[in-house]
TrEMBL record:
InterPro entries: His_deacetylse_dom. It comes from the Bacteria. Residues 20-303 form the Histone deacetylase domain. This is Histone deacetylase family protein. It comes from Arsukibacterium indicum.
């Protein structure tokens, strides 16, 4: 039991305005609940470092990365899609968000029975090989996975994405790469309205209806993901940890609660203990109901312990 928490103050400085749900207060809400729960005493907290262009270009096209650097405004803001704006500090925040995944991979690969959680923003799982979308600029989890494949010569990495939205960007980046087992559960139909018809032997999508109860979600995860993850025998488990499927989160219509996130973390830890010395790296994706977000992160981390 040794969880390291990576974050960086600059991740708070990307600010798309007071009425934007992907707001700096999300990280404060997580921090508040870590303190309230006493977990802040147990976690090892470290500052993330920034990803380099070369790190980003393992998951994204060089043209896309170069264009994002070139577009980054020094004042004002620009819109990359109707949900996704870039301002003065956005590029820096995105570089540290992506970099935290590399730090976390190093942390768990170089220690025994180690887990890491990256409390970062902007999130990443909608960013495709060559497109920003849905609040996402760089695909943090994909950048981390590519780094682990490259630096540690891994052959099997599982990416588990329980954000209520389909991890379309992650699927796009790894659709031809069977070294990755990608598992995504999501409300369908709902933004980005992808993933329901994916046919692949290394992508397990669980499109579930609005109003989905926890029992239905757990049953789907138990029958579709857990046996496949066990059979895949991952050398590392990465998690796109989005908490917007919480019943209190108005971004979508799932009915999940803290104990469901705790349950999934426990199941993933069991698989990680069996196959990869307990190595789990989770990175924050969505989660917009602030109180529920903080409580859910605490429940998830307790499940990893
Ligand atoms: Zn989401």
């Amino acid at each position: 039991m040794a969880i390291t928490l990576f974050s960086h103050a600059i991740c708070r400085q990307h600010n798309a305005g007071d009425d934007h749900p992907e707001c700096p207060a999300r990280l404060d809400a997580i921090n508040d609940q870590l303190i309230r729960s006493g977990l802040d005493y147990i976690l090892q907290q470290k500052d993330a470092t920034a990803a380099s262009k070369a790190d980003l270009c393992r998951a994204h096209s060089t043209l896309y990365v170069s264009e994002l650097y070139a577009k980054a405004p020094t004042e004002g803001h620009i819109w990359l899609d109707p949900d996704t704006q870039m301002m003065n500090k956005t590029l820096q925040a995105a570089l540290y968000a992506a970099g935290s995944g590399l730090n976390a991979v190093d942390e768990v690969m170089q220690g025994n029975d180690k887990q890491a959680f990256c409390a970062i923003r902007p999130p990443g799982h909608h960013a495709t090989h060559d497109q920003a979308m849905g609040f996402c600029f760089f695909n943090n989890i994909a950048v981390a996975a590519e780094y682990a494949l490259d630096k540690y010569q891994l052959e099997r990495i599982a990416i588990v994405d329980f954000d209520v939205h389909h991890g379309n960007g992650t699927e796009d980046i790894f659709k031809q790469d069977a070294r990755i087992l990608f598992c995504s559960s999501f409300e369908y139909p709902l933004y980005p309205n992808t993933g329901a018809d994916t046919v692949s032997d290394h992508i397990i999508n669980l499109p579930l209806p609005g109003g989905c109860k926890a029992s239905q979600w757990r049953a789907a995860v138990s029958s579709e993901w857990l046996p496949a993850l066990d059979a895949f025998a991952p050398q590392l488990i990465l998690v796109s940890a989005g908490f917007d499927g919480h019943a209190e989160d108005e971004m979508a219509h799932f009915m999940l609660r803290e104990d469901d996130y705790n349950w999934l973390a426990t199941e993933l830890k069991t698989i990680a203990n069996k196959h990869c010395q307990g190595r789990v790296v989770a990175m924050l994706e969505g989660g917009y109901a602030l109180s529920a977000l903080g409580r859910s992160v605490v429940a998830f981390l307790k499940g990893l312990m």
